[in-house]
Amino acid sequence: MEQITTVGIDLAKRVFALHGVDVSGRVVLRRTVRREQLVELIAGLCPCLIGMEAGSGAHQWARRFQALGHTVQLMAAKFVSPYRRNGKNDGNDAEAICEAVSRPGMRFVPVKSAEQQAVLTLHRVRQGFIAERTAAINRIRGLLAEFGVALPLRSLPPGSV
User: Fold this and answer.
1) Could you give the CA distance from residue 38 to residue 57 in angstroms, rounded to a whole number?
2) Residues in CB range of 84: below 8 A, 6 or more apart
3) Rounded Cα–Cα distance for residues 105 and 51 (Å)
4) For residue 122, what are the contacts with CB-CB under 8 A and spacing of at least 6?
5) Which of 20, 68, 66 is nearest to 44 (CA)?
6) What is the DSSP string of 130-158?
7) Which segments of 22-69 are extended strands (E)?
8) Which pLDDT band holds residue 153 (cuts at 50, 70, 90)?
9) What's the chain's average pLDDT?
């Protein structure tokens, strides 16, 4: 197999589409692999540039591929879609990712560490609890209004009554 210089990977839950090109841009890899085969396949490649859309699981995969010696670039999906030539499917997405990652003007998303992801997880959970609390308060206010009890939108500060 020729030396692969760039690989585009369309991430999914179980099956991943890969599209790889050599230094001249000729397609030398086009296949789909199951989740458990992906790391083994990537480990068998010489160090190359790997592009993926920044989405669910992308940062974890990026850290794993970087540990194998590859250069990994993550991109927002909205920047990849203009490079898709045909209809939307996994193979065409992988090809578009491979094309987009090699463009000089492309904007990339930095790969997050596991610690950064953990902190973001805490923030998301907190935001979810706040939204649930607000919804419950508004639901109670609405139900009480049905019985003629009108509550203010905000509670008064202590000592102001």
Assistant:
1) 13
2) 92, 93, 95, 96
3) 14
4) none
5) 68
6) HHHHHHHHHHHHHHHHHTT----SSPPPT
7) 27-34, 49-53
8) confident
9) 91
Beta-bridged to residue 7, according to DSSP, are 20, 50
Give the predicted TM-score (pTM) of the model: 0.79
Residues 42 and 24: their CA atoms lie apart, in Å, by: 20
pLDDT tens digits for range 52-101:
999 889 999 999 999 999 999 999 999 988 888 888 888 899 999 999 99
Region at 157 (left for phi over 0; alpha for psi -120 to 50; beta for the rest): beta
15: phi then psi, degrees, rounded to nearest 5: -120, 130
Cβ pair 8, 94 in contact under 8 A: yes
